[in-house]
Amino acid sequence: MNNLLSNLTPVVKNILIICVICFIGSSIVKPANSWLGVYYPDSDFFEIWQPVTYMFMHADIGHIFFNMFALVMFGPIIENMFGSKRFLNYYIICALGALVLQYGVQAIEVYQIAGTPFAKDLISIDFISNTIQSNTPLTSEELRTLASIYTIPMVGASGAIFGLLLAFAYFFPNMPLYLMFIPVPIKAKYFVGGYIVLEIYLSFNNSGSSIAHLAHVGGALFGYLLIKTWGIKKGYY
Length: 237
Fold this sequence. Notes:
The protein has about 240 residues and is mainly alpha-helical. It has one domain (about 1-230): Rhomboid-like fold, CATH 1.20.1540.10. It contains 10 helices and 4 strands, in the order H-H-H-H-H-H-E-E-H-H-E-E-H-H. The chain has helices spanning about 1-5, 10-30, 30-35, 50-55, 60-80, 85-115, 140-150, 160-170, 190-205, 215-230, and strands spanning about 125, 130-135, 175, 185. The strands form 2 sheets. It has a two-stranded antiparallel sheet with strand order 1-2. Helix 2 (about 10-30) runs antiparallel to helix 5, helix 6 (about 85-115) runs antiparallel to helix 7 (about 140-150) and helix 6 (about 85-115) crosses helix 10.
């Protein structure tokens, strides 16, 4: 790990520092994730800065550890390939792309329930008693879905990290990866491809409702589109 940290590239190092500072800050100032995490655009809690700040916030120690570990592992390789300026653009656009896909999924969910993607006027949430009401006939499950979309912020660099994973697997498809608890190496293309398929499966099975699985896929998708748009040639290793 000391070797990894000493070989950090400039943008990766700065992202790591910002994320750690934000995590420590959010541990001290508890509402920080509510201010800087990102809400559904129709929510009363949405603010214009949140699509940028959300990618530097994390929910807990496990969340930030695995994201930053992947950043340190794969980020310097990709930054050295792309150059710092293009790498920063890639990282941010992947994170924003993840958010775009997540918003699309949420809009569809809201539309299916309320007949419109803008339903905040149809629900009333009492945070003191932790209850939700609607002026239209909705089931308790539909009410809970709307409440989670409108009142729970999304945080984390996972969308950007999936963009990095996609780039690594694209340019180094046959590079063996050694994972914890798995005694045999797995080629990058199989690991990342399998991970993306798992995220899609989990998203459609509503597993881990607090995790925006399709947002992760959005990061990988936008990463792939960027690589193709920029015309960066694929290498074989």
